[in-house]
Amino acid sequence: MRATAPAEPVRTSAADPAPFIRIDGVSKYFGTFRAVENVSLEIRKGEIFALLGGSGCGKTTLLRMLAGFEDPTKGRIFIDGQDMTGVPAYDRPVNMMFQSYALFPHMSVEKNVGYGLKHERMSDAERKDRVREMLELVQLSQFAHRKPHQISGGQRQRVALARALARQPKLLLLDEPLAALDKKLREHTQFELMDIQHKTGTTFIVVTHDQEEAMILSDRMAVMDKGEVRQVGSPTEIYEYPTNRFVAGFIGSINFAEATVASISGDLAEVEVPSFGGRMTARAVPGLAPGQALTLAVRPEKLAISRERPAAGNAVRGVVSDVGYFGKDSLYKVRLPSGAVLSAHSANARRAAEAERVATWEDEVWLCFDPTAAILLTG
Amino acid sequence: MNRRPVFLMSVLAFGFAFFYVPILSMIVFSFNNARLATVWGGFSTKWYAKLFSNDQVLEAAWLSVRIALTSATVATILGTMAGIALARFKRFRGRTFFSGLVTAPLIMPEVITGISTLIFFILISNLLEAAFGWKTQRGFTTITIAHITFSLTFVTAIIQSRLRDADIAVEEAAMDLGSRPWQVMKDITLPIISPAILSGWLLAFTISLDDVVITSFTTGPGSTTLPILIWSKVKLGVTPDINALATITVCVVGLGVIIAGVVLSRAERRRDLDAQMAYRANE
Ligand SMILES: Nc1ncnc2c1ncn2[C@@H]1O[C@H](COP(=O)(O)OP(=O)(O)OP(=O)(O)O)[C@@H](O)[C@H]1O
Ligand SMILES: [Mg+2]
Question: Is residue B9 in some structural domain?
Fold first, then answer.
């Protein structure tokens, strides 16, 4: 039982006095196609903010508007209190790391990193120092004189990062920075990115379609769908307290069931769930009324599987129809009498031979979940 | 199974022979000691010596080189600008019309281009004479202008296709790093397309150097280019000194084409290598 779970997701952003970046009702239409629709976001100084969403949902377009490559059709963007409307890309205190890296093919690594410093008022010695510092930061000092086509993909990605950081921008935009790297290198680089962000204190906006990457990297994230922002919050808020079906389904896996509100008493609501074959108790969300139709959602790892009916909590009875063994955990598919199939994850905390496991094919089991684990979605 | 390659190979060999044997025989006979152009009389370089002491030939060669240098340079500058405008500025009024205008001479029969250019020059010169009493003559200037308009097309096409393959994000990256549009052009765009510019120039140079049709329409008295000279001499019969002259022309033009090809293919190979490495990094 997790009695300490907050009753409402914490939303400190609303209380923040002056956000560093304010995106105010921004839309972008290409002809009649709505690539970005009425997006409003506030991003704080020094945070890593992730934009997460499926392919074509407008992440890159939003980033390009921040960088100044596209003008919003509607709305305004403020960076550090300054209205960016009409400010060209070369005058913005923003640098971007491109999805394709976009390194200058005819310049050495060193020249690439130093290119942006040409326009800064600083002495040649200072410029040299800065380039050296940046190359050290991304551990590429020994490749300073190579051309981009003479280094590996991962090294190119770090050159792109160093080049974008060299001018010490107030805001760094990263478009799928790790998409081109293999899994191992990606995991390693995620932590490197966080480390670099920590050292430089730069505000990062990271675009990604990889939910795990967004969760690991970001302080807060926005989940986008078809040009609209569907929810903003910390990774925990997004994962544990999704506010609508899209976000709940997009992040991680989840079981959905149609439900109707039966009664509300304080913090808890009783809901009638036909496919579960009865009433379930769930943590209430504001604005519920008896008789209201909504969706009940439970994450697979919140469903405990057992042979005996548990003493407390919501319980559903079913038959194991499938078992997937992943090593560190197992996935059970449980068919309910109503025909609905629920997924339950359980950690393989003990070393057990196959015969000793909790349940196997065709076993009758109980699935149990705490009222706080049940999510009620009205959107 | 083995028949087809043999057949194909022999067709290919025949095609090549048809194309290159005349040129080779011309080169061989340019070293012929005999007066007759078609009977071998021993090796000699006397026709080359004769050529280089012929003032008429030297003058024509010098005129041709001057025209080729000037028209290639101007055509490359204008063609590069047109290519950039067409490839990079996606929406401007009359874009389709402009791109049609630039590429039309590619498919227009040369005779038509020649005649229309001639009519244009006559009109202009009449106008100049009527307005300022300024008598003009066709010659270096008119030939050069005609060559510029013609070779401009080729340069534009080369630059445009090179830019279309180039990653536009690279230019955006430069702008993102604080460069104004003209700096982006200078630091990024021009260096990246420089092989295409060089090969465009060489192509324009060779096109100008061996042009007969357009030149004959736009030339005037006293302005004889090398190809025109050869043309008029051939009318009186092929002599070994013409073989020698043609051999030199073939060498110069061939060298230009080869250099252009090498420059472009080397740049291309490097680009392929880049693409391969990027692809490998993606896996
Ligand atoms: N210049 C443009 N003209 C017309 N449509 C465009 C243009 N740029 C983007 N779009 C459209 O806008 C939508 C959003 O594109 P965007 O590049 O922002 O997607 P994304 O979220 O970055 O996707 P991905 O994850 O695949 O990179 C897409 O449907 C795309 O086709
Ligand atoms: Mg994108």
Answer: no
Tell whether B266 is covered by a domain. no
Chain B CB contacts of A96 under 8 Å are: 173, 176
What's the A170 CA to ligand 2 centre distance in angstroms?
22
* A227 CB near ligand 1 (under 6 Å): no
What's the total number of domains in chain B? 1
User: Range of B197's domain?
Assistant: 58-226
Q: Give the Cα separation of A357 and A346 in Å (integer).
A: 11
H-type alpha helices, chain B: 3-29, 46-52, 55-88, 95-107, 110-132, 140-165, 168-176, 181-184, 190-209, 213-218, 226-234, 240-282
DSSP symbols for B179-236: --HHHHIIIIIHHHHHHHHHHHHHHHHHHHHT--HHHHHH--TT---HHHHHHHHHTT
pTM above 0.80, yes or no: no
Residue to substitute from A71, A90, A159, interface B, most B β-carbons within 10 A: A90
When CB atoms are compared, the residue of A105, A118, A180 closest to B281 is A180
- Is the CB–ligand 1 distance for residue A69 below 6 Å? no
pLDDT tens digit string along B133-169? 777 788 898 999 999 988 998 999 889 888 888 888 9
Sheet with A375-377, edge to edge strand ranges: A278-283, A268-273, A255-265, A293-298, A375-377
Is residue B88 one of the residues assigned to a domain? Answer: yes
CATH code of the domain in which B70 resides: 1.10.3720.10
Let me know if residue B268 belongs to a domain.
no
Does the complex come out with an ipTM higher than 0.90? no
